[in-house]
Design goal:
EmrE-like, 74% helix, 0% strand, transmembrane helix, 13 helices, globular, EamA domain-containing protein, membrane, mainly alpha
Amino acid sequence: MSGRLVGVALHLSALALFVVMDTLVKRLTAHYAVPQLMWARFLFSLLGAALVIRVVTGGLPWRSRAPRLQALRSMLLAASNLLFSTALAHIPLADATAVGFASPVLTVALAAVWLNETVGWRRWAGVGIGLLGVTIALRPPVLTGGAPPHWAMVLPLGTAMLFAVYQILTRKLATVDDPRTTILHTGFAAAVATSLVQPLFWTPPPLGDWLLLASLGLLGGAGHGLLVLAFARAPASLLAPLTYTQLLWATLAGALVFGDWPDAVSLAGAAVIALGGVLVALPDRHRR
């Protein structure tokens, strides 16, 4: 199997793990407060990442040249996860995933404004199409016969905005710190912050649920690890559009596990968002 095909397989596997994690979060919100689930997500992800880096490299490069930016980045990820997990307690998995996929579109817009990256007309068209898809996915009354959208539909949009800023900070930190340092700091501040609020939300889990809580962090960590391996074997222009296959897995998981079958409005919004996302994911071609 060629390196590109291996990269594609690793990428698709990572997306499947993310859907499994989100499905597990949605299931566990019936028994635990979202902050407790986020604590487990970041704590076990941090421990897993530290163990792997220690075993593979023989060290733990904690020291950062920009500790405040690292902490801010970690907290942005925690806040985006908090909003998304809260949304999963109220709306279908596929709907939340679709709106959350506005993040790549917003990242391109922020990169043009904040990082002064050159963005061609086709990618700007993708931004516009993606935002149109978000509008559809939010289910405005004109598309639902006057029925107002569920209030929780706004939460994945907040997730997309926060994650877009998170992505921009990731790009900036890539020129400052060792990638291993950034990986370790990804969950560090979030794990500390969520640990501090546990007395307010803690529900003692039975032994079986401890395994599920640990799985949240391990699934997330493994998924991000597979993404790193995938992008080392295949170009981003090939892999990035495949990210939107996660919408298919989320729709299937929502239908099979929770009985949430998407309607025409949800499918249309997801399709338009995916189209915009594919346009912004493909690199611009500049004439010499």
